[in-house]
Amino acid sequence: MTGYIQEFKDKKKPSDYHARLISELEDANKTFRAFLAFKNDSKSNEDGMPFSVKSNICVKGTETSAASKMLKGYIPPYNATSVERMLDKKFGFIGETNMDEFGFGTFGINCETPARNAFDEEYVAGGSSSGAAVATALIKYHVALAESTGGSIATPAALNGVVGFTPTYGAVSRYGLIDYANSLDKIGVMARSAHDVKEVFDTIRGRDEYDMTCVVEDIKAEKRDTLFVIDDLMKQADERIRDEFEKLLSKTEKMGYRIERINSDILGKAVEPYYIIAMAEASTTLAKYTGFKYGFQYKQFNKHYNEFFKDARENFGTEAKRRIILGTFIRSASIKDRYYSKALMVRRMIIEEMNKILKKGFIISPTFPIMTPKISEASKLTPVQNYALDLFTIPPNVGGFPHISFPYSYMDGMPVGAQLIGESANDHAIIDFVSEWEKHFDYKFKHNLGAL
Amino acid sequence: MKDEEFERLLKITRIKLTTTEREVIKKDVDEILGYFDKIEKLHVERKPAYQPIDVPTRMRKDAVKKFKDPSLLLKETETYNSYVLGPKL
Domains of chain A (ranges plus CATH)? Predict the structure, then answer.
């Protein structure tokens, strides 16, 4: 297909199309809570293809809170580079989407008002880019800017039946992103088709003088004929997911791909080093929230600064507090070598191992190891049980490799997704794979808000 | 984690916990550190990967660039005669 962006351009639209769409979304938001804020500037690209922005990416003039109490009321005075580039290409901003507070979560439930799955509101939307995925599943003509640190694009995309693409680290500028972990954060895309993903990725990528880590410019489209399945990881998935995934492998064989099953001990051990690095970095990035600049203002200036900061920082949610405490501990001089330094070495090992595999083919796996849980079920999981569920999405994130999640089946009325990982900078190749997949499989959407 | 260490961390991170939060987070911290301890069993001698890719040092020109509307930056703070107000030392 040519994608929804092109279809939208070709359609005749009413002059107040965005206003009508936002009115529909305000209604749907009562159930799905996909959006935290809608645009308040009726003049910006009113006839442009609608796009939403995760609430940790700055949009000038629109509340950007990262779903936190700490940044409640924060109105950025500038646009993130990715947003600026979308506006330059005449995409029309519609609103900021819901998420786990500061990106800390797998299910989208670590926030005040969690987004709900677009297929069934009793179920989790996935996280941390929960609202971006739900919005993409709700709106017919729409693309989303989202962000991933350890799986925050792939997981919610899989759970809501949309395409979720995380680019190579350093391909898209992070300027204007409310950072979680600088060496892991990537701004990416969600859409209803691979074609749209590619168009948006090509719009936002490229060097930016404001982000010194944005250095990956030459994006490749080198097709691979072999799909590697990592058996050590597959063993940890639920039986139903494994069985369904085998059917996908058979279909890809019919498409001409060769399946090769391999073992990799180190890729099965990526979750621990990832969380060590992520928490260590998060504990430093959150240090700037002190209650007298950005968002929440404490204003009790008569208090001594220690007391002032303690009172102000009470506004962090439980998961944020947990990560600040643990991250600070991990970085302690006496402990650093045991956890943080070791994790950085393991990361090098993971990158080396994945480079070897990805030179010969793509890595394919389910995106999520279990069936989508209900919100009530996910709330009962311990943090460690939660973290362990990121086993498929963490290896590419910790190594900065491009990966894409796409719907491949529907079980018990809920979508299930698979994830394809490519070599560094071979982003176009994995998007092209999904385009090819879409010729063999029709995605299902329960909602088509804004249809023309 | 020993109680004294937990208290030290709360002090340096300036995090205040309610009694319930303290119980839950202390238990979680112990469980998570137990999980992280698995990394100790890995024998690995590598250069630490601080970034997933090599990032060459590239500096911006050391030139003054004016922000279009500085008053927008100050909007996010409490000010007095254009000075940002903060807690007392």
Answer: 1-452 (3.90.1300.10)
